[in-house]
Design a protein that fits this description.
Elements: H1 3-11, H2 36-63, H3 67-93, H4 104-109, H5 115-120, H6 124-146, H7 152-192
Helix pairs in contact: 2-3, 2-6, 3-7, 6-7
Length: about 190
């Protein structure tokens, strides 16, 4: 097809040579391409997830005594803030209005709801459990987004962030498992030493 034919077809609603979803190696039919509003909605959902993680990790940092955990949780909180900013920029480039905060009601479903009670008890294992639960939810939200046929520049950002969230999840899970094993060892020692 020559450029003139493609141009005319584009005007008539046919093939568009400048289609933002035309990525080499992909062949999405028009019925599987999400429209711009769906992409913006997905990105706004990821922004809320990142904001919830930002707040949850900040609260966790304030609730632990160990300086290494405090630093790690503040680092993850900052990372989520950065991720939200990157996603907000993408939403703006797509012509949408980016979310600016997580939502309390949705936080119930994103795994961070029990962090406040865990922090109040200042129990390191409980705080790590809640952080890992929040990370499980974030991983799932990102996996769902990655199943969509997103434009290449959006997909690259979401994939990069997902890899970092997976890494953070694994780190938190290892710390949680270590804390739980230490608590189990203490309980076993206490019960056999009397």
């Amino acid at each position: 097809m020559n450029k003139m034919t493609a141009y005319i077809l584009g005007l008539l609603g046919g093939s568009d040579m400048n289609n933002q979803y035309d990525t080499p190696g992909t062949d999405f039919s028009s019925s599987t391409k999400p429209d711009n509003d769906e992409i913006i909605s997905t990105l706004n959902g990821l922004i809320e997830t990142c904001k919830d993680g930002q707040d949850g990790f900040k609260e966790a940092a304030e609730g632990v005594e160990r300086s290494d955990l405090k630093s790690l949780f503040y680092e993850f909180s900052q990372q989520r803030s950065q991720f939200a900013g990157e996603l907000q920029t993408l939403v703006q480039t797509l012509g949408g209005d980016p979310e600016n905060a997580g939502s309390l009601g949705a936080a119930l479903h994103r795994g961070w709801i029990n962090i406040k009670s865990a922090v109040t008890g200042k129990n390191e294992g409980s705080i790590l459990n809640e952080c890992e639960r929040g990370e499980d939810s974030a991983k799932n939200t990102y996996k769902e987004a990655l199943e969509m046929p997103l434009p290449a520049h959006v997909m690259d950002t979401v994939q990069t962030q997902y890899a970092s969230i997976q890494s953070a999840h694994d780190r938190v899970k290892a710390l949680r498992d270590s804390a739980n094993n230490a608590n189990d060892s203490s309980a076993n020692t206490a019960s056999t030493s009397y």
